[in-house]
């Protein structure tokens, strides 16, 4: 049986559902705003409502692992169920775990998120390349074997990221550009889209790097961090057609009403469409 690569699955989802990614970030303050307790029952209801509201309509759901990890094993159980139900409803699940470690440990992260035998098996995972791009090899290889994606931090949406990511690498390029060049090499020849994506904040203004990596560009920072869909062409230029704009609190604050969540996601999707098609 041939396994369809993540890049092809993502392109199809973007074409049919639109490119929007909604993050599942159960902040304590959001649980309170939703009238829930900041406990495991609140986490479970928040997550179930979000998945029910959005998994049948957005291209990508992105659970932020940290908000589940803070509840220990019971939080992880909620996350496992969310991943399974979101995938069953047709959303691609991007696990926002931002893992980064030496290669041998990266192999264990790959087993956790990119191996179909794992209860946390997801369509894609976020990773940090700042232990060296080569340290990601086990995740990159597992992604190929299992038809998954790997989203690599390049230029993050937070202002503190620049001191590392814009610094100059040994070859004279910025560290971010060096990582993007590695991603382009991984995606060479892939059609319609490679499976190695870059994370590039929508908050950056002109990104000032070459984003032509033949892969998806996850753009967090829309909504609560101040960026809007209208900013996307200025940040991404001609690469904007490969952008997966990501919103978490900007949508989630409209819960717990399912209609409110859906309408908010639809509004962002409309704004993205208008911005991208010009
Ligand atoms: O550069 C990055 C990479 C990841 N994130 C994550 O995305 C969401 C953003 O949440 P909002 O509520 O839409 O601000 C969150 O999970 C971050 O960890 C990012 O913001 N920037």
Automatic annotation (TrEMBL):
Annotated SUPFAM superfamilies: Ribulose-phoshate binding barrel
Keyword Cell division listed: no
Catalysed conversion reaction: orotidine 5'-phosphate + H(+) = UMP + CO2
Protein name, as recorded: Orotidine 5'-phosphate decarboxylase
Keywords: Decarboxylase, Lyase, Pyrimidine biosynthesis
UniProt domain Orotidine 5'-phosphate decarboxylase: residue ranges: 19-264
Gene that this polypeptide is encoded by: pyrF
Family label: Belongs to the OMP decarboxylase family. Type 2 subfamily.
A Pfam family per the record: OMPdecase
Active-site residues annotated for this sequence: 98 (proton donor)
Enzyme Commission number: 4.1.1.23
Pathway listed: Pyrimidine metabolism; UMP biosynthesis via de novo pathway; UMP from orotate: step 2/2
């Amino acid at each position: 049986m041939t396994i369809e690569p993540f890049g092809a699955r993502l392109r199809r989802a973007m074409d049919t559902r639109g490119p929007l990614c909604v993050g599942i970030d159960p902040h304590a303050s959001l649980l309170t705003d939703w009238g829930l307790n900041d406990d495991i029952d609140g986490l479970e209801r928040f997550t179930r409502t979000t998945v029910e509201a959005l998994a049948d309509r957005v291209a990508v759901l992105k659970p932020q692992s940290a908000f589940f990890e803070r509840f220990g094993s019971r939080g992880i159980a909620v996350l496992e169920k969310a991943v399974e139900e979101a995938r069953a409803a047709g959303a691609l699940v991007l696990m926002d775990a931002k893992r980064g470690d030496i290669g041998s440990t990266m192999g264990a992260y790959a087993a956790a998120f990119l191996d179909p035998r794992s209860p946390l098996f997801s369509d894609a995972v976020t990773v940090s390349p700042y232990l060296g791009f080569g340290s990601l090899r086990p995740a990159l290889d597992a992604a190929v074997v299992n038809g998954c994606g790997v989203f690599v931090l390049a230029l993050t949406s937070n202002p503190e990221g620049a001191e590392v990511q814009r610094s100059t690498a040994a070859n004279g390029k910025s560290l971010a550009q060096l990582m993007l060049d590695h991603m382009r090499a991984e995606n060479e020849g892939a059609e319609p889209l490679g499976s190695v994506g870059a994370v590039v904040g929508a908050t950056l203004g002109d990104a000032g790097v070459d984003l032509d990596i033949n892969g998806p560009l996850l753009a967090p920072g829309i909504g609560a961090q101040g960026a809007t869909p209208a900013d996307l062409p200025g940040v991404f230029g001609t690469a904007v057609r490969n952008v997966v704009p990501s919103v978490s609190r900007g949508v989630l604050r409209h819960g717990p009403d399912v209609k409110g969540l859906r309408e908010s996601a639809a509004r962002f999707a409309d704004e993205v469409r208008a911005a991208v098609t010009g």
